[in-house]
Design a protein that fits this description.
Elements lengths: L24 E4 L1 E4 L2 E9 L16 H30 L1 H13 L3 H14 L3 H17 L7 H18 L14 E5 L4 H5 L6 E6 L7 H9 L3 E3 L4 H4 L5 E5 L4 E4 L3 H22 L15 E6 L4 H7 L5 E5 L1 H5 L7 H15 L4 E4 L26 H7 L1 H15 L5 E4 L5 H20 L9 E6 L2 H5 L1 H5 L5 E3 L1 H9 L17 H16 L4 E3 L7 H9 L4 E5 L3 H10 L2 H13 L3 H15 L11
Helix pairs in contact: 1-2, 1-3, 1-5, 3-4, 4-5, 12-14, 14-15, 20-22, 20-23
The structure holds phosphoenolpyruvate and magnesium ion.
Magnesium ion (MG) binds next to helix 18.
Amino acid sequence: MTGHKDNPSQPPQEETPPPVGPKMQIIKGIAVSPGIAIGHVALLGDDHRRLPRRPIADGAVAGEQKKLDDAIEASIEELTSVHVRAKQEMGDEAAKIFLFHAGMLKDKSLIVPMRKMIEVERVGAEYAVSHVLGQLADKFRSAPDSVFTTKVNDIDDLASRLLNHLLGRAESRMAKLPIGSILLARDLTPSQAASFDRKRVIGFATDLGGRTGHTAIVARALSIPAVVGCRQLTAAATDGSSIILDGDRGIIILNPDAERLDEYHGLIKQRATFQLSLGELRDLPSVTTDGERVELVGNIEFADEAQHVLDLGGEGVGLYRTEFLYLTNKHEPTEEDQYKSYVRCVEIMKGRPLTIRTMDLGADKYTQERAETPERNPFLGCRSIRYCLKNQPMFKRQLRALLRASAKGPMKIMFPLITSTGEFRQAKYIVNDVMEDLDEEGIKFDRNLKVGMMVEVPSAALMADTFAREVDFFSIGTNDLVQYTLAVDRTNESIASMYNPAHPAVIRLIRDVVRAARRHDTPVSCCGESAGDPEYALLLIGLGLRTLSVSAGSIPQLKRLIRSVSLKQCEQIARQALSFDSETQVSSYLRDRARKIVPDLFDGRTGE
Ligand code: PEP
Ligand code: MG
């Protein structure tokens, strides 16, 4: 309120300044699921880890153990119904995590210590749960390796679920959140993300996490705007305060001022209109203004996502990351499990292009079984094709499933992280071996199945000429190519600014791979995240790429870009970009050109 004091005879006082609200704060994280949400902070704490030790009388032991058993039973029931719901929303494979959690609750090695603790230490059931599971989580958390995060998440998730039942909070806090909540947590488990009431939770952000975490995958599968890796976010935020979550740019604005709110409300409207206009492009061809076709295909993690790619106007699947089938299961999926997923994908594709990558386990994507023996430097360790070549029976099971599925419709397969010709030859040899086995068993498969490789390490890029003589196709994986060329861990938030695909070393490698491929008539595509970035896509097309494989959500905007630009313009952009000697120059040049060519793709947003 402004105005004069009560006494009119007094000279006018100075205007009272408006009350100072909490300070606006902008926090940058990693954008993992696009969209903008404006709402209120709902802080989700991990307070179950600080439960007081509640002593119980001798005669209360049986009662507390019964309470524990009941909570376990109720949690299993709950997980079974979450599984059914998640299956409908996210598909079979993504939903399996809930069956896995239910399985953990039947595991005696987890339950017996809790019952014993109640009996021996005479403590309440909730304390036994929080102590036993807390200790287990701490053990994984303190391991010198970030790959344990998934396991910690699973344990924390189970602890919360059990405690909700034990402490009479059967309806979890999440179900009671106000409409328009933006959930902030140090970390979220996939099961938490999947059980959000979508009317209440309109976005989420976490301090921890990277793009390839389960939770990020669930967010994308459910189309909830999300930002992860925000580090100090939960420490800075206050429950109930106003917040903007920008899942497009990976930005969180705490206590936004009126100007910022106006800007974002405008952006939401603009975005909705824009999405509608993009939808109209769905069935139009992806060609440049001068008639050059650029194939747009999708990256998927689960077979059911393939339909989403088609719905958004994709022409096929350029990268199916099959390892997610392993990550959402406690045990290695059987040949039959895998076969079903691949056939499902083939069926959805109905003859359209489909490239399936053999499992890329290790590094930040770790199997449950292997978690017991961490590596010191897992990104340079036994990952991807190396892991497969060391675990041939497992690799062969996958290849059998893939080959059998190849009888049902067109598909290609490719190997990840090939670094030497020996590796490719060995992997190909195993494929031939499996083909012979299938032949002997009279099982059908596509004898002419194309076998390609990812180019995602500098050694492979530098030797593209040699590889091109042997492989059926290349797919350039910029996510890893950037990290290995620049020696920048792609999952480390603290050096994220150094992770720049526009680095001259990276673009020269891409140029050389494309040139080598052309010389040998070897098809080449790009399936790294950068291919979905309109600025970078201009460069890739200019460098000679004619197939871009991107996450489904990026397809419409890329189609708009391609239909607005000429090949000549792209080639000129690539020539100019190659003439620069620093990534800053390349980045700012690309940014500038893209905004001039398709300003509406950027809605005047310049980035923070
Ligand atoms: C890549 O490395 O660019 C890639 C597409 O594979 P992933 O992101 O699964 O490592
Ligand atoms: Mg990779």
